[in-house]
Amino acid sequence: SITGACQAIQKLTRVRVVDNSTLGNTPYHRPPKCIHVYNKTGVGKVGDKILLAIKGEKKKALIVGHKMPGPTMTPRFDSNNVVLIEDNGNPIGTRIRTPIPYTLRRREGEFSKVLAIARNFV
Amino acid sequence: RVSSDGKPPKFQPPPKPVIIDRKTQKEESRFLSPEFIPPRGRTDPLKYYIERKDMIQRRKVFNIPEFYVGSILAVTTANPLASDKSTRFVGICIQRGGKGLGATFVLRNVIEDQGVEICYELYSPRIQAIEVLKLEKRLDENLMYLRDALPEYSTVDVNMKPVPRMEHEEIPVNKVQVRMKPKPWSKRWERPKYNIKGIKFELPEHKMQAAQKWSQPWLEFDMLREYDTSKIEEKIRKELSEELEK
After folding, report:
1. A111 and B CB contact within 8 Å
2. DSSP β-bridge partners for residue B138
3. Does residue A95 sit at the B interface (CB-CB below 8 Å)?
4. In this predicted structure, what is the pLDDT of residue B3?
């Protein structure tokens, strides 16, 4: 049996990759799972980097939305969304169609390239 | 009748027709926003009175329209991180919670196949405008089941034009029966505790009857749970009308 998707992102949560990279979109018999959260607490929120296990490889990713309700006026998504990223912060995909929360704009310095490929903001 | 000195009787104009304006008589059943009604408890009513004064102050400056769960709203918020400094979000209201100044409402929409929900505070100074695009009610007070329903029931067109509505019309009730995604759902909506009328359950008969095992039919007769708000509401309505006239 499959448990319902958990709310914020921690180790072993299944995530959904939302950019158009080949690694994120090619089907595989196991969904991409988080194996480490680069955070003092092990819980990842929007804007945190995590390590993902996709197709037998380890890849870093950035959380762009989760199912857990956050502060009021911030959006809550119906799935845990993640964008694949390199170690230096460059995104692997070229386009992000799903809406991204505006709170990421606060850290324009680190995520400028990810924000540049995002299409709609919420 | 009696001719006065043979001259024709003085002209009596016909009696003026009495117009009973039934529309103004309906003013009594006016809408009172649910966050004004204080919750049941032992707190001093002074606290709620002071909060209501602040709520009325805010309403004098900023118009908060009448809306219900199930209406489609468009909210423009001030956001320093957005280009144009303001963001607009359109969605169906699925829940209205909180009392007093912390009253919130949750809007849901599906954008690019991704369901998004935002919980707004009604009295937040960041909100610049609330527009009601379509005013309607649904069969339930809480539409959280839309998360487990097919996405077509939560999609709202972002560029929707406001549906024109005449004043003093009855608020339409949308009796749509929503079709759900296959189970598992986030909550077991078929159980009588949620008392949902707006879902078309396509579950087999034995499952529906098994869900009735959790029904608590004695709850509706429990007198200690009763909270009659009619007198409180009248007082608050009077207070509101006095304050808004000032």
Report:
1. no
2. B174
3. no
4. 56
Cβ-nearest to A122 among B104, B116, B119? B116
Strands B86-97 and B72-78: antiparallel
Q: Are B70 and B137 in contact (CB under 8 A)?
A: yes
Q: pLDDT tens, B8-51?
A: 888 888 888 887 776 655 555 578 999 999 999 999 999 999 99
Q: Return all residues near B121 (Cβ < 8 A) that are at least 6 apart.
A: A72, A73, B98, B102, B103, B104, B127
Cβ of A4 within 8 Å of Cβ of B112? The answer is no
Domains of chain A from N-terminus onward? 9-117 (2.40.150.20)
pLDDT tens digits for range B225-241:
999 999 999 999 999 98
Please write the tens of the pLDDT for every residue from B145-192: 999 999 999 999 999 999 998 887 888 999 999 999 998 999 999 999
Measure Cα distances from B135 to A83, B23, B113, B185 in Å.
38, 19, 25, 28
Q: What is the pLDDT of residue A100?
A: 95
Residues from B in contact with A at Cβ < 8 Å: 77, 79, 81-82, 87, 89, 104, 111-121, 124, 126, 147, 184, 186
Cβ atoms A23, A42 nearer than 8 A: no
* Chain B: closest CA distance from residue A120 (Å): 9
From A35's Cα to the closest Cα of chain B, the distance in A is: 24
Cβ contact, residue pair B124, A73, below 8 Å: yes
**For residue A74, what are its two tokens?**
């911030």
Per-residue pLDDT averaged across A60-74, rounded? 93
The C-alpha atoms of residue B106 and residue B128 are separated, in whole angstroms, by: 17
| Position A1 confidence tier, pLDDT thresholds 50, 70, 90 | very low
Contacts of B146 in chain A (CB under 8 A): none
DSSP B199: B
* Inter-chain Cβ pairs, chain A and chain B, closer than 8 A: 62
pTM check: above 0.90: no
First to last CA, chain A: 34
- Contact residues on chain B for A18, CB-CB shorter than 8 A: 114
